[in-house]
UniProtKB/TrEMBL annotation:
The chain crosses the membrane at residues 20-41, 73-94, 114-134, 140-158, 201-225, 264-282. InterPro entries: MetI-like, MetI-like_sf, Phosphate_PstA. Its main location: membrane. It comes from Vulcanimicrobium alpinum. It comes from the Bacteria. This is Phosphate transport system permease protein PstA.
């Protein structure tokens, strides 16, 4: 009788725990859906081709966010050009070449310390170095280099974890067939880890796209008046996230709420697309190179 009661009590506890955990997990979906719906309600009426492609205005209504969207992708591309090779090379070295010792510990400690620096502090560093010391003034290249320093640790860690997920048996098989260590890394290990690495890169790209504090002090709060789509990296490049902050804090245009809410909705949609793309692209590359889903 006692045994039967004990079994029933355990089953009841298990059922309660299952329901609680399911509710907690479902609440995340509900909160995200509610947030997206609310932002859509606030900014949906502002979305139009004129708004997405038009240039911002300083004092009159009807401005757009075209140059800000362009600058966001421009700085994102510059940042990834600097970040991906350095972070990938550092991750490969630490995971595949570095042996336990003082140098490896110093590199790991430096990366972890760099990852804990607030973005606004990194922005002040970029202001002092790239704006004042190098005399680049507010520029896209200064913002991109600041974001490179900010995101290097995360992408390096992603590379390490992706490489560590590759079974050692694949490395041993490659070595057993006469492959060198470099051939094993480039032809076996990296292709096997490409899915996870790509997912990490795209997720970091989403973080870069939405960064604000670091770019306020480095990329500036304006766009070139004559040529807002200039490819010159040494010109001011206000991004969409910075424009959103500026609109709600200092802008004097009459339709500030329309511009702010519309910008927030566009930024939210872009970041969500980065997250979806990370999942889909990572799985596709994993299937292609390894024949299995991630």
């Amino acid at each position: 009788m006692l045994a039967t009661s004990s079994v029933r009590a355990r089953k009841l506890t298990d059922s309660i725990a299952t329901v609680v955990l399911w509710v907690m997990a479902s609440s995340i979906i509900v909160m995200l859906a509610a947030f997206i719906a609310y932002m859509g309600f606030l900014g949906g009426h502002a979305i139009s081709w004129q708004f997405l492609a038009g240039v911002p205005k300083e004092t009159t209504a009807g401005g757009g966010i075209g140059p800000e969207i362009y600058n966001s992708f421009y700085i994102l591309l510059l940042t990834l050009v600097f970040t991906v090779p350095i972070a990938t090379a550092a991750g490969v070295y630490l995971q595949e070449y570095a042996k336990p010792g003082a140098f490896r510990n110093i590199v790991q400690f430096s990366a972890e310390s760099l990852a804990t620096i607030p973005s606004i502090v990194m922005g002040l560093f970029g202001l002092l170095v790239f704006v004042y010391l190098f005399k680049w003034k507010f520029s896209a290249i200064g913002g991109a280099l600041t974001l490179t320093l900010l995101n290097l640790p995360a992408l390096m860690r992603v590379t390490q974890e992706a490489l560590s997920s590759v079974p050692d048996s694949l490395r041993e098989a490659s070595m057993g067939l006469g492959g060198t260590k470099w051939q094993t890394i480039t032809r076996v290990v990296l292709p096997s880890a490409i899915g996870r690495m790509t997912t990490g890169i795209v997720l970091v790209a989403g973080r870069i796209f939405g960064e604000t504090a670091a770019l306020i002090f480095t990329a500036g709060l304006s766009v070139p008046f004559n040529n807002p789509y200039d490819l010159n990296p040494f010109r001011p490049a206000e991004t969409l996230a910075v424009h959103l902050w500026y609109t709600h804090s200092e802008s004097i245009v009459p339709d500030v709420d329309r511009i702010g809410n519309g910008s927030a909705l566009v930024l939210l949609i872009m970041v969500l697309l980065f997250n979806v793309a990370a999942r889909l692209l990572g799985r596709q590359l994993t299937r292609r190179f390894t024949g299995r889903a991630s």
